[in-house]
Amino acid sequence: MSLISFPSKLLENAVTEFSQLPGIGQKTALRMVLYLLRQDKETVNSFGNSIIQLKKDIKYCKECFNLSDTEVCSICSASNRDHGLVCVVENIRDVMSIEATGQYFGVYHVLGGIISPMDGIGPSNLAIKELEERVSTGNIAEVILALSTTMEGDTTNFYIFRKLKPYPVKVSTLARGVAVGDELEYADQVTLGRSIVNRTLFEGTIS
Fold it and tell me: Against a cut of 0.90, is the pTM above it?
């Protein structure tokens, strides 16, 4: 049931669509829509087209599963990155957070989530098999497990460690500069950067 009395069905429809975005209530959605109505037609068209083009043309890198405009993302295709060093993260936001530190020069592997039975997410729902396939080529020297320091993150770390144990690859994890229970994307850049640089060997236990 709408909390606002709308003078126009078109306005109501637009507000309803905006309010479906995470963290956007009906009043905030109304402010956004009214703001767009005050802009010229070219500005609004550009805004709408950017969303349509994003949905239509965005790709997932076939190597690391990061978002990309091309089949292989700019990080995986960069010749100045260390392709023998793979940082495993939960999502695209974590890639952006780590890149912002300027302390990491390897490549990534985006899992697409972490193991969470309560949410119905198991290993088969994540890109863990693809990570194992990358390691099995023998071209990877080290895998850094850079997942959130939550119970779900630790469980996923342990599962991946067990999967990679048969291969001659070093498995490390972030130094505990990132506080236990923290989501990676909310760690400040200095702390996150130091946690990567001072990473430690993964001990194969759940803390």
Answer: no
